[in-house]
Amino acid sequence: MSGDPLVLAAGVRTPLARAGGAFAKEDAGRLGALVARELLARAPWRPDEVDELVAGCVGVPHDQANVGRVVAVRAGLPTSTPARTVQRNCASGMEAVDCAAMAIESGRARLVLCVGVEVMSRYPLCFGEAATAWFERLSRAKSPWSKLAAFAGLRPSMLAPKVALLEGLTDPLSGLIMGRTAELLAREWSISREDADRFALRSHERARAARDSGRLAREIVPVLPLEARPGAGALSHDDSIRDGQTLEALAKLPPWFEKPDGRVTVGNSCGITDGACALLVCRESFARAAGVAPLARLVGRAWSGCDPARMGLGPVQATARLLRDTGRALADMDVVEINEAFAAQVLACEKAFDSAAHAREHWGGAPLGQLDWSRTNANGGAIALGHPVGATGARLLLTAAHELAARGGGHALATLCIGGGQGGAFLLEGAA
Amino acid sequence: MSATPAPGTVATLSFAGELATLTLAAPHRSLPVIDLAMLEDLERAVAELERRADWQGLLVRGRDERTFAAGADLDAIEAIADEDEARRLVERGQALHSRFEDLRAREKRGRMVAAVGGACAGGAYELCLALDLVVAADAPGTRIGLPEVKLGILPAWGGATRLPRRVGAKKALDIILKGRLHAAKEALRAGMVDRLCAPEDLLRIAAEVARGERGLARRGRGLGALLVDKNPFACAMVAGAARRAVLRSTGGHYQAPLDIARIVPFAALASRADSLRAESEAARRLAASPTTRNLLRVFRGVERAKKLGSAADGARPAPVRELGVVGAGVMGAGIAGAAARRGVAVRLADTRQAALDSATTAHRLELDKRLRARRVEGHEARAALDRLDATLDLATLRHADAVVEAIVEQLAPKRELLARLEQHVSADCLLATNTSSLSVGELQGALARPERVVGLHFFNPVERMPLVEVVRGERTSDASVARAAALALSMEKTPVVVADVPGFLVNRVLGPYLDEALALLSSGVPAALLDAALRRFGMPMGPLELLDEVGFDVAAHAARTLASAYGARMGPGDRLDAAIAAGALGRKSGRGFYAHGAGRARLRADASALVAALGARSPLADPDAVAARLVLATLAEAFRCLEARVVESEDDLDLAYVLGTGFAPFRGGPLRHARAMGLARVVDELRRTQDEPDVRARPGGPERFEPCPLLLSLADR
Predict the structure, then answer these.
(1) ipTM above 0.95, yes or no
(2) Which of A407, A411, B59, B123 has CB 3.0 to 4.6 Å from B34, enough for a Cys bridge?
(3) Inter-chain contact B396–A30, Cβ cutoff 8 Å?
(4) 3-class DSSP state of B306
(5) Of all helices (H) and strands (E), which one includes residue B134?
(6) Measured between CB atoms, does B446 come within 8 Å of chain A?
(7) Lowest mean pLDDT across A186-190, B260-264, B584-588, B627-631
(8) Can you give the pLDDT at residue A1?
C-alpha cells in the first residue's frame, strides 16, 4: 500500500424508504443534493474545494440524464466543478467511489464527492414501439383530415405501458428477471425455503436492534420528504424494517418469481427502495490536514464478471480477486458487508466461498473459507433495510466503515452482486 | 444630483434613413427619470418630429437595452407646493404625451415603438402608452407598471386614460390600484406590452418594427371593447365594484384609489380630453395633499435605508451567502424561510426535529403558493427549496457567514448558545440575535469577539413585515452593523439602526399604546369601540386585534420587560395574566379577544372579561376620543425615544414605526402626525389627559402622558 492511502473522509445517507412510500414524490436530483449538502456542511471543506462529483444511479430520471450534474449544482458546488453519472447496475454507488479513487490516483483530483442515489418510486411507465410510432405520426400530421386519420390508428393494446422498473430488473443477456437468477442459485446450491426465510428473519432482527440502539442513526440524516403532508414529520429510520417479523409469517408468502415451487418470496428478497448516500473520498493526508479523522481507509477495490444467469455469485469471484490483490484472507476480515439482494443468493455465496469445487473452477485456487456471521451483516442488510440500487454500493461502504469504527478497527469487506453478472468487492481498513 | 445638463443631451433625437430614434440618455443621472430637464428635451423632440416630414417610424429607447426610465422625478413631486403648481406639472406631461400620440395621425407606414428594458414605471410607461407599440426585454430586470397609487397619486400623464383603452378597464384597474411593477412575462400576459425579445435583440427588433420591416400588432380588445369598454352600464358596474373594494381595503383613508376607481372605468367611454381633464383634476388635489407628502417620506426613508448596507466610505461588507438560523420557532422559521426564498442559503438548527419539520413545511407551502401564482418558475422554486436545510447539529453551521439566533427569550440560554456558536463558526462570522426584550450588550457578555454580535429584530410574520431593527450593542462594531443591515436588505427588508434599550424602538413605543388599550377596556370602554376607533384613525388593525395576532404570552412578556425597565408608565405588565392562565393566547390558541376559527375572526361578546375591571370608569365614549388617547400615549413615548436618541432622526423613527406597526402611513408616522397636529396642541392634550379621572386613578397613568423635556422645548420653539 502506498504511504498515503485513500480514505472515505466522511459519509452520510438518507433513511431508505420503501418505494411508493415516504419518498414517492422525491426526485433523484434533490435527494442526492440533500445528502451532498449535508456532508459538506459537516466537513471542513468548502464546496469549491471539491474537485469533482461522481454520482452512481441506475435508473436516471428521464429529465435528468446526467443526474450527477444536477446533484452537484443543487448541492451548491460551483458551476465550474465537473460532475458525471456512472452506472454499473446495483454497484453504481460503489462504482462512483471507484471512479473517485481513480481520479485521485491519477492526480487529477484531490477531493471527490461521491453520491449514490436511486428513487425507484419514480421509474416511469413507458409506451411500446407501436404507441411511440403512433404518437410520431400524430404529431407529424398537419391537416385536420390527416390528423384524424392518424388518430384513428390508435389501438387499445398500444396503451398497455411497459413498467420500466420490471424491464430494468430483467437481465437482457440471460432473459431472467433478478429473482429467477436467485431461484437458479437456490436450486443449484440446495438452499431451502426455510433457510432463506430464516436468513430474512435474522436480517430484520439485526436491523431492528441496530436501529433501536442508535447504531444506524449514526449514518443517517433525517429527511422531510417532498410533498409530505403538513404536520407530517421527517423520516429518520429505514422504514422497511419489520418489527414483528416471524418465521410463520414469512412461510405463508407465496413464491413470487417461480410459482408454485420457487423459494424466493417478497419476504426473503430485498425490497424496492428509495434512498441516497454521499461519501467524500481523498488521500488520508488531505483529510488529516483539514483536521478530519477519516471514516476508514480504502485499501483495495476489485471487480469481476460471472455468468449473468448466476449474477448472485458475483461477490465470491470479486472477493477472490480482492483478497488475491491485497494479500488478505477472508478470515482476516473483522467486518463483512455483503449485499442481500436475495436470501437464497447470499446463502449460495456463503456456500461458494467455502467450496473447493467452485474455487477450482473459477480461480483455480483454494476456497476462500467460511463466512463468520457474527461479523457479517451485523446490522442486517438489504432484505430489512432495502436496496435503492444506485445508492447501495455507497451505503455498504458507509455501513462497513461505521461498523469498523464500532468494533475498534481492523479490516472490512464490502461486496455485492450486480445484475448482468458481475461482482464488486472493496476492502476498508480502520483509520483510527 | 449633478449640475443641470445641457439642453438636447437628456433626450436625444437622431435620424437614420427614415427612422427617428429618441434616446432617454439622461447623462446627469445614474438612473434616468423624467425630470424637468428631460421634459424640456422631450418637448423639443416632439416639436421637431411634428415639424419634419422625413421620418417614417419612431423608436423610443433607453440608454441601453436594460435601462429605460424609472418614472417621474420624485424631487419634482415633492417640491410641489400647491394645487396650481401640481396642475401645471400634470398638464405639461399630459400635453407632451398627447402630442406624441397625435403623431400617429401622420401619413406613414412605419410606427412609433418603445423599446423597454429595466425599470419602466410611472411617467415613463405613460410615454410608452402614447406610442403605438411596446417591445420589452425578456430579462429579469424588466419591471413595468404604474406605481403612482403607492405615493397617494394616480397616473395622470394619461396613464389612467390610455391603459384601460389598451387592456380594458378591469385589468387596468387591477394594475393601477395595486401599483405593482410587472416582470416582462407578466406584462406581456396583461397586454401592457406587445412583444418580448431577448435584451440583446431588443433595439434591433424594435427598430425593425418601427420601420415597418417586421410585423407586430397590438392585441385587440375584441368583443370586450364592445361589451365592456364602450358599454356605460358595464363601466358603471366595474366602477361600483372597484369603489366598494377600495373602501373595504383602505377604510376610505386614501383618496387616490377612489379617484382611480372613478376615472379608469370610464376612460374608454369618455373622450380623451374629458378623461385627461378628470385625471388632472384628481391629480392636482392629490399631489398637493399631506397624504402624498407623507407616503413620499416613507418611500424616501426606505430608499435611504438601503445605504445602511454599506460602510461610510461606500465599501460593501462581505455578503452573507450562507446563513445559520438557530431556533425553529415562529420567528426562526420565518427568518430562515424568508432568507431562503430571497437567495440566501440557510441552515436552520434546532434540537427538536418536529420544529424543523414544520419550518420546512411552511417554506414549501410558501413556495407552492408562489408557483401557483406563477411568481416563480419550477427551477427557481427547486433552488429555493434547496436553500433551506434543517439540522439537529449546531456544529454544521460551521460555514455560515452569519448566524441569527431565535431561541427562547432568556438570557442564560442565549448567552450559552452564543458561546457555543463561537466555538463552531469562523472568526469573521456575524452573530445576530433576534431578541426582542434582552440587552444585546448583556448578550455580548463573555464572548471572545463581542464586536460581531448585533441585534437583528425581525417582526412577525417575517415574510410580510418589512422592518428589521438593527440593534447596536455596547460593543458592536460599525462593520457588524453594516453587515447586519446588508443582510436585512438582501432579505428585501428595511433596516433601521436602533439603540440597545429595552424594547428597542418599536416595541417600546407600542408598549404604552397597547397597555392604554387594555386599561381602557378595563375601565369600561367597549372592545368593539376600541378596535373600530383605531382602524378609523388609519391603523391596519385595532389594538385588541393586534394583541390577538402577537399572542398574549408574547405581549405579556414584552410588557413586563418594559415595566421593569421604564417603571409604571408602561403599565403593570400583568393585565393579560388571567387570560393566559385560562388558556387564551390570541389567534394561536384560537381564542383571544376574538374567536378565531374557520372564516373571519369574530369579536367575542365577553372580550372585556379577559381583563380585570378597574375601579375608575373611563369617560371616553366616542371613537375619536379613544383614538386620540391611544395616539397620545404613542406620541409621548415616541418623543422620549427621540430624546434618548434610540434612533438617529425623526425620519428614522417614523419610518421604523410605520413599517413596524403599520401606523397609518398616510399620516407619515407618529412624529409627523404630532407635527401636523401642532406640538403645542400635543402638549396641551397630554396635560389634559393627565388630569382625566381614569388616568389619574391608575398607577403610572399621569407619567405615561407626561410630555418629555424634548417635546416641551420643541413645542416652545
Answers:
(1) no
(2) B123
(3) no
(4) helix
(5) strand B133-137
(6) no
(7) B584-588
(8) 45
